[in-house]
Write a structure and sequence with these properties.
By secondary structure, this protein is of the alpha+beta class. It is built from three helices and seven strands. Strand 6 (88-90) and strand 7 form a beta hairpin.
């Protein structure tokens, strides 16, 4: 069971089996790369890997079956984050459900660089 003591990032695990081959999610890989550019953020997040198959158990329980995109960042406290990213709400929690908005949030919250194009 997931406890929301801090921001929680849901990613697809790298090297999952789909389409009769090993694959990875490009957006999840992008966020994983950002976390390695700025490793201090890793210490501030809980990271939960989800399977490629749906329903994705922890994500579905937390924010509903209609919100199973990975990457998704569930925010403990979204105050001020709307200045830099499009925050959605699901089951009473605030979420960012794409790599660009998650990157913008990291820039706002942790002072990292912004994703290109913004």
């Amino acid at each position: 069971m997931i406890s929301l003591d801090r921001d929680t990032l849901f990613l697809l695990a790298p090297g999952f089996e789909d389409n009769d081959r090993r694959e990875y999610c490009p957006e999840c890989a992008e966020i994983w790369g950002v976390l390695h550019y700025y490793p201090a953020i890793l210490k501030a997040l809980d990271i939960v890997y989800q399977p490629i198959a749906r329903p994705r158990p922890e994500l579905s329980r937390l924010i509903g079956e209609e919100n199973q995109n990975c990457p998704t960042l569930v925010l403990l406290d979204s105050a001020g984050a709307a200045e830099s990213a499009t925050i959605k709400s699901a089951n009473g929690v605030s979420i960012l459900d794409n790599a660009k908005d998650i990157g913008k949030y990291f820039a706002h919250r942790y002072g990292t660089a912004f994703p290109r194009g913004d």
